[in-house]
């Protein structure tokens, strides 16, 4: 089940560029808010909402990291995240660089991973006001059009 999704930072996004460290900070923020929600509900929602730990990919040139299951459930294994730039052509024919976040479900990923990856894509899209290209080919627009 190797599959890809993209979060593209368009002109109307809250930021035009993103680094791997900024992406990791967003995931730490996600962990914090879900843990606080769990505290309010007196339930371990933080562990259920984010059943992963952030792991580095050796020799990735700071372009990739992966979320590896923390072992609390067999429903989850791993999701890979990367950042990059692509050249796009705008409506006037000018070429510009556009930053994106790539989400990869590698071979061996579970359906639980795919569900969480979709959830994370939507969260990142809302947080960054970006254009999200989901695994099924659909596009969601979280920026003002």
Automatic annotation (TrEMBL):
Q: Which SUPFAM superfamilies match?
A: Rbstp2229 protein (SSF111171)
Q: Which residues cross the membrane?
A: none
In Swiss-Prot or TrEMBL terms, this protein is called DUF1885 family protein
Q: Which Gene3D superfamilies match?
A: Rbstp2229 like protein, Rbstp2229 protein
Q: What is the lineage of its organism?
A: Bacteria, Bacillati, Bacillota, Bacilli, Bacillales
Recorded hits in InterPro entries, A to Z, give:
DUF1885 (IPR015062), Rbstp2229-like_sf (IPR036294)
